[in-house]
Design goal:
Elements: E1 4-7, E2 16-19, E3 33-39, E4 43-48, E5 53-57, H1 73-77, E6 80-81, E7 87-88, E8 94-95, H2 97-105, H3 109-112, E9 121-123
Antiparallel strand pairs: 1-2, 2-9, 3-4, 4-5, 6-7, 7-8
Amino acid sequence: MLRIVIDTADDEMFPKYDFTDGVQSESLQMPRLTDVKPLDDYRIWVKYSDGAEGIADLAHLAGKGVFALWNDPEAFQDVHIGPGGEIAWSDEIDLCPDALYLRITGKKPEELFPDLSDLVYNYA
């Protein structure tokens, strides 16, 4: 059984959220990113532990904010899986693999986690 308790403070203004009620932890796991490769035109190919794979177009990010690093074509080619499973280029740039998984597969979170509707919110 999964038990996640978020206690934001000891103050009465902040409730304690208790998400339990028999939801199994296995049902709350996203497929893991297993491979990532750079492609041309600020695109990457990604593959996940459930066999899903696809191409993500990141051109809309290129040159903006921290993504200015990609103005150097060699820097974009350095994409790799970071120590936490994130899609990374440096210590400053990483992307959530879960968000790209949803984008590539077209799935919605509730399709992956049907047990979320069974969560119970108990307020302390």
